[in-house]
Amino acid sequence: xxxxxGIIQMNGEAENxxxxxxxxxxxPELSAELNPSKSQLVLDSIWVxxxxxxxxxxxxxxxxxxxxxxxxxxxxxxxxxxxxxxQIQEENRDGIFLSPSDYIPYxxxxxxxxxxxxxxxxxxxxxxxxxxxxxxxxxxxxxxLPLFIYNSGNQFIFASKLECIIASxxxxxxDFDLVSFAEQYTFNYQxxxxxxxxxxxxxxxxxIYQIKREEVNKAYYWSPQELIVESPISRKEGFEIINxxxxxxxxxxxxxxxxxxxxxxxxxxxxxxxxxxxLKQNRSRISLFSFGEKDSADILIPRxxxxxxxxxxxxxxxxxxxxxxxxxxxxxxxxIKSNGIRGYRRAPYFFTTPxxxxxxxxxxxxxxxxxxxxxxxxxxxxxxSSALINYISSDFKIRPDFPQLLFKEQSVVSKLIEEWxxxxxxxxxxxxxxxxxxxxxxxxxxxxxxxxxxxYEVNSYNDYIPNFSPFLDIDFITAFSKTNYSGIYHPFxxxxxxxxxxxxxxxxxxxxxxxxxxxxxxxxxxxxxxxxINPFGRLLVLSKKHFLKQTFSDGSFVNxxxxxxxxxxxxxKYPETYEKNLQYPLKNNxxxxxxxxxxxxxxxxxxxxxxxxxxxx
Length: 617
Description:
The protein is α+β, with helices and mostly antiparallel strands.
């Protein structure tokens, strides 16, 4: 994975050679490539570096603005509104503005640490103010791309990859965080800001850290609470606002990426909605892709649409050949490059992205579409666990049980339960200022689910290609949240038919407004989006929901083969520690085994063995 890392000496005697050696161990761990393109900044008591994605030529980072005496690195995607660009250009007529990142030092001088409020996108920024001898570390409102931090008291260390900090050798002790394992098993990811290694935290969302000598000042410049309005805009007016905001979000990506664009299209609705906007002005640059079993909806439906629309399409078939040649490397990368958060079942993303990057420089996806647009029924999945749904449904009053049987060493469990409760109490306090469960869920959705699920995954394969989803654009989220379409203003997980219809009709009307042909194709539900808003089509919708089911392969082949192949590989790779780190709590009751949970435990077990073998022996 590409990203940034650095060491800031805060106090104590400067051990330049020691820290230089530590930094040189960190930088190579950022990239999946053996010889990545990289750049670094070395000043008195500061070592900062960046590894560039494979698709990106080495740019001029670290950028140094001589006039303002500011160095800075940008990891990720930064956007500046047209109005702010115009204002900064008028005030700095001798400035050179070739990209959005060129505005950062001018925004910093004008607004101080509030400069980040005038940026959108997904980013981690390091900035050094030479005149004030001050370092600034900031991320976007969703904290979409992870940044790990470790404060030893003498050094402040940060990195896009957890392993970089371990590799530095600057930690006194490297111990696994067992409560973080419990969080990941229970919720699919950590709800706290702790990582899988004790003492290493993740930079909280919408953070600004100011580091000057021995002082570290933390501030948070945004909260999801700012999205809530007293009187949400009506659906009629809100539709127009959402349509414009989605159009702007898609164009934000397309105007900043001038190469070919790969749009992910499945049998569902989110990718098709995004495609309806992308095709308005960029048809010649667009091709489609999907992956799945040969007879799955995610292959058959995109293939039919691409043929009818005369669009380039590349299917990535998950068959025996995939498992024989590609699965193991893809599964291993999925676990390691995601800092231990994603499991081997996410291997297809590492199978496809390197291949997609040979012809495209951007993936345009529908990530987070369901989480934003739908609110009637929240179903347990890899995105959100049943334990988290139940916790939210109880208004955070009934805590999930600590999964103590996950740990073979039971003597430590009482201390772990104490820390478990401290972390959940902190989360409960964090959401206590909201009035409704729906508002609290919105907070969790934007401050945890967006980054811990989608962000970690996107960051894990950004060596090859960036992934942009308009549903994760903060300008779109802000506009959408003002309307009555937002789940903020409806009961949480009420499973009401009228709520389902609100979301379905929104999808259908948006696509029909932008591309009626795309609305007419069948989906994996057996009916089209046009059927949702057509009186005769609604009869088909009803029949498909309650009587007729279109038959596609159910994914059991891929899931079964994934478990079989990974289990054999893990046992061969680490025979001494195979299944000895953690255990599946319900293993003795075959009927209760959840294959998703089992894969999560097995993936964590593998990551523990990998880290132990590489760093702790």
